[in-house]
Design brief:
The structure is a homodimer.
Chain A (H helix, E strand, L loop, with lengths): L3 E8 L2 E13 L5 E5 L5 E3 L5 H4 L1 H5 L2 H4 L4 H7 L7 H13 L17 H9 L12 H13 L13 H14 L7 E4 L5 E6 H12 L6 H16 L1 H4 L5 H9 L3 E6 L3 E6 L4 E7 L7 H11 L5 H6 L1 H4 L2 E3 L5 E7 L7
Antiparallel strand pairs in A: 1-2, 1-11, 2-3, 2-9, 4-6, 5-6, 7-8, 8-9, 10-11
Helix pairs in contact in A: 4-7, 4-10, 5-7, 8-9
Amino acid sequence: MNAEHLVDVIRGNIVESEHWGHIAVVNSDGELLYSNGNPNKVIFARSSMKPLQAIPIVETGAADFFQFEPADLSLACASHNGESQHTDRVKNILSKLGLTTDSLKCGTHPPRWKETYEGLMQSGTEITAEFNNCSGKHSGMLSTAIHMGESVEDYYKIDHPVQQRIIEVISDLTEIPVEDIEIGIDGCGVPVHGIPLKNLALGFAKMANPSSFSDKRKGAIEQVTSAMMEAPEMVGGTDRFCSDFMKIEEGQMFGKAGAEGVYCIGDLKSGLGIALKIEDGTGRATSPVAVEVLKQLGLISEEQKELLKEYHYPSLKNARQEVIGQLRPVFSLKNA
Amino acid sequence: MNAEHLVDVIRGNIVESEHWGHIAVVNSDGELLYSNGNPNKVIFARSSMKPLQAIPIVETGAADFFQFEPADLSLACASHNGESQHTDRVKNILSKLGLTTDSLKCGTHPPRWKETYEGLMQSGTEITAEFNNCSGKHSGMLSTAIHMGESVEDYYKIDHPVQQRIIEVISDLTEIPVEDIEIGIDGCGVPVHGIPLKNLALGFAKMANPSSFSDKRKGAIEQVTSAMMEAPEMVGGTDRFCSDFMKIEEGQMFGKAGAEGVYCIGDLKSGLGIALKIEDGTGRATSPVAVEVLKQLGLISEEQKELLKEYHYPSLKNARQEVIGQLRPVFSLKNA
């Protein structure tokens, strides 16, 4: 293993658990500036790929045709809480497409937002697919299929034009040939994309600074990242790092979490892309590492750091809501 | 880090995540027979300590006085699902003690068993402390306080006789002086105990073969382990490894999970104690390691292994319930 020790989980006076992993910081020219662990490790980006996956929604003209608001496009990049602000908007998008929740092939799971979940149970309401945290992404995929006159039943399959457009965008932004992208199946049934960590960081760097692309692609990328930063509450929701982080970064950075311990950030000011993977797949360690990377790169102010404190050093609480421990980042970024 | 690579998380054709950790296999004489990673690592046993914590319930005479059934004692060793089989029994124990749910200081969390949780929401029932997975342990602690005429408001504090009896038992079984046991606070508000992994294994070995103890302690230990194996459904519940594992082991082994990736087993036939800690604290990796250790030690039959297959090689499913990956143990036990 060439992962590095990134985060300690402290309880009482001892380190109860440790998280190890990999970090890559890349500029939009593809130069690896900093790395910890193995920046060449092939990882599944999981939901961190959603901002790239949203680009065809603009490029096909679907976003314009269906008059998507920034919040609609932001929701297409989301792993959302399933709050009403998310599910109402998903239903509205589907209605614009002439579709219903039945067209979503993401499957169902209880909404992440506890109050929504409990409210559904209290009112005896069935949990349907719009509550799936990926329902915005699926709605976005459907918008391109409808707009291009393609079949909607099988949009989730790798050989469908919806997925082929996405993989072409990923290949272009991450500079990995289509045939070298590892394909797996995500928690919501669509393909996930496996590429080296540093190339995932490159994808975010090129979204932060899309000057090397054609005007069309550049415009589409800017529309997606602006939408995320303009409507960050869509990307996660209440008490979620992605949303709170983008609010605090005030239009300078966009970030997206992925399952199994992935996090990616693009910084517009520096044009840097950051990608990190917690080796063991634990999501709790991602925000401490992400904020610590920004701190060490000097990309956040003291005030922003203070506002992100509970994501930087998350408290562990017991069921009595007493603080009984803390997560702490323990690494130093290394020049690559 | 001296943890070893124990489990791969496979998605598609790649290893998406890895779990590393530590294993100790000890006999009841305290000989370390096998170890992977660092068997001397000080870890918090968390809920894996519950079988040892239940011993004073018998030794104080509380179990006899309150006519505890084996299932009551088994529930005192539980991290249960909060199913009605568990919560009804907790309420019954409290009623025997002349107490109510209000005396439980474990705090509340939604019951782990989804149907129970959703049922509570549907009926508008408040989630009270008996649904906390540790409510059986807390009821057991209260039984000793009541029986010994001690205060019940502060039974969770380290200097209360309830906790002092427990720490004396732990010290005796694990051969760690009381003053060397690291103390933290558990998710349910009571002290947790930090000791070297091999000493935790020793505690389980000595519970599996308690012949070195006084008749009183030996009898109490046998009463606890018999209760766990006689009523394994109390220790976890439906679809829980602890319960299913003990059912399949048919009175030969007892096992108990602990938070942050701990698992411990005692085997009556061989007198061996096994303790394992996943370095990153992830619970999903514990059953694959536990079953693999038993397999490599030759302690389970082909038939038992087959029955434990879904715990040995857990499937990863997406929200559409398709199998899209698998956990796989990847280590070989090493002679210590």
